[in-house]
Amino acid sequence: MKTLTNFPYSKVLVLGLAKSGEAAAQLLYDSGIDFRINDQLPLDENETAKRFTELGCDVITGEHPLTVLDDIDLVVKNPGIPYDNPIIQEASERKIPVITEVELSYLLVDGPLIAITGSNGKTTTTTLIYELLQAGGLDPLIAGNIGSVASEVLRKQQRGQPVVMELSSFQLKGTKTFKPNYAILLNLTEAHLDYHHSMDDYIGSKLKLFQNQTDSDVAILNRLDSLISEQHIPGDGERFYFSVSNDSENDIIVTEDDQIQYRGNNLMSKHEVGLPGDHNLENILASIAIAKSFHIPDELIIEKLRTFTGVKHRLQFVDRINDRLFYNDSKATNIQATSKAVRSFKQPVVLIAGGLDRGGEFDELFDSFTNVTNCVVYGESKDKLYEAGKRKGFNHITITDSLMEATKKAYELSEPGDILLLSPACASWDQFPSFEARGDMFIETVHKLK
């Protein structure tokens, strides 16, 4: 496993453990670099901190005293720790650089790096690119918000081996030298303002993906996304545009007769694609751009696109019960993602929505309800969803307390031929530790219904 060499810092503070902090600490330890760990969880409840303590490392747990910054010249912070945290604020005052584990891991890169960001569709696109490169025999690795964290994966990267990496705004905000050979921005919508506090900061964090690209790199962009089109994309990467409309200015498009066309040549009909939803066509076009860049034969691309049906918790088909189709889209944690999910289906939809109330309103969501026959809401945001629906003239709303109850009620309200869709438009943290746990509960409840 690779380690860091010629590291320019004397002592590093790893602030916050979890997966990324643990991986960063392990990399520093294996590289023989002096570091300190600081984590909020007390030592008697913190198995990771115990392990590093037993290794003789400098570990402080249970609190975040400002003294953890003494004799530190670099902070590697957990992406989820906000920048208004007192330790981060103090580090800024002391002019100590603050990075995320992704930036630390970049020192290990030894081959093509493909990085994907966006407000929605990151995981689907990252997974599809990985599978396309795998089909082409390129032995890719996958990292970031999928599977193992970046520094674990990049330690295993062989010279010339492609790495496909999903990146969030939280991770990108803490980058300085990070530079992917291929950088994809799928879309931009209002998200994570509780962390970033402004759209400018959120978008600026996303755009850091491109800031260090040279003219030998490629920036892959969604031409039809209105927020992306308003931005000055930094860096010198070659611009490659995709569009789901027939626009000859773009490199890859969907034509008026529904052909996916790459630089003037038809590849396949969009109706042959196995992944449901027009919004997923954007993810597919971006993925094709990478596959073509790596010279994967068209027949392998077509075969993979016909058989790829998505990622768990992202418009995942769960089951058919009495001619009703159940889909798990638990990853849809904002209004835009749920609106796109609803529009993915031409059949009548019974929508299950709700979760953490982040203070927003939901009126916009109901504008996408052209084929929604009923909406069953639950969780902390249920009353806000109900009131928004009433304001928009949508009266087929049922309030429940839990996801299990909502799923059963949705089934009672459905008719043969309906789509029963969990697409919450909210984060999961009011009742679940993660969107994955929420989706698993939905799947379990569906199977019990059967």
Account of the 3D structure:
This protein has 450 residues and is of the alpha/beta class. The chain folds into 3 domains: 11-96, NAD(P)-binding Rossmann-like Domain (Rossmann fold, 3-Layer(aba) Sandwich), CATH 3.40.50.720; 104-307, Mur-like, catalytic domain (UDP-N-acetylmuramoyl-L-alanine:D-glutamate ligase, 3-Layer(aba) Sandwich); 316-449, Alpha-Beta Complex (Protein-Tyrosine Phosphatase, Chain A). 34% of the residues lie in helices and 21% in strands. The chain has 17 helices and 20 strands. The strands form 3 sheets. A 9-stranded mixed β-sheet has the order 7-8-6-9-10-11-12-13-14, with helices on both faces. Helix 2 links the parallel strand 2 and strand 3. Helix 5 (122-135) packs parallel to helix 11 and helix 16 (403-413) crosses helix 17. The longest helix has 16 residues, at 278-293. It is globular. The termini are far apart. One of its GO terms (molecular function) is UDP-N-acetylmuramoylalanine-D-glutamate ligase activity. This is UDP-N-acetylmuramoylalanine--D-glutamate ligase. Cell wall formation. Catalyzes the addition of glutamate to the nucleotide precursor UDP-N-acetylmuramoyl-L-alanine (UMA). It catalyses: UDP-N-acetyl-alpha-D-muramoyl-L-alanine + D-glutamate + ATP = UDP-N-acetyl-alpha-D-muramoyl-L-alanyl-D-glutamate + ADP + phosphate + H(+).
